[in-house]
């Protein structure tokens, strides 16, 4: 999709099942250098990135949406808590501080507590993510 120009709109991962979303994140990580060619620098600090939360139904879908918000369709910005923390140190498309405007955040926050494929608690993961963002000076506006 990258080479042929068909990865040209956000949300293509939305129809995938849990296993497919995990594969999408793996693809986004490994294709990151291809995507970023010609754009080696991070966006300047102080930017506002908008995450469309309509398809965020679990932790992996959040990571898919976060990658898109910061780096466009098929973009990568972490696929677990540690990776997001690493990405927030720079060279992955955005340098803190910045604002993450999370539209339709109620979809993710109103879901009952569930467990991801690794047995993690999605509500706990969300709380830890928000703490990681705060530690790096990221202002998260949940709308």
Notes on the protein architecture:
By secondary structure, the protein is mainly α. It has one domain (12-142): Barnase, Chain D (2-Layer Sandwich). Helices cover 40% and strands 10% of the residues. It has six helices and three strands; from the N terminus they run H-H-E-H-H-E-H-H-E. It has a three-stranded parallel beta sheet with strand order 1-2-3. Helix 1 runs parallel beside helix 3 (59-71). It starts with 17 loop residues before the first helix and ends with a strand.
| Mean pLDDT, all residues | 85
Element string (H = helix, E = strand): HHEHHEHHE
How is the biggest beta sheet arranged? 3 strands, parallel
Low-confidence runs of at least 5 consecutive residues: none
Shape: globular
Q: Give, in spatial order, the strands making up the sheet with the most strands.
A: 1-2-3
Number of helices: 6
Count of individual beta strands = 3
Rounded to the nearest angstrom, the distance between the terminal CA atoms is 31 Å
Number of domains: 1
- Secondary structure class reads mainly alpha
CATH T-level topology: Barnase, Chain D
Strand content: 5-15%
CATH class division: Alpha Beta
Rg of Cα set? 14 Å
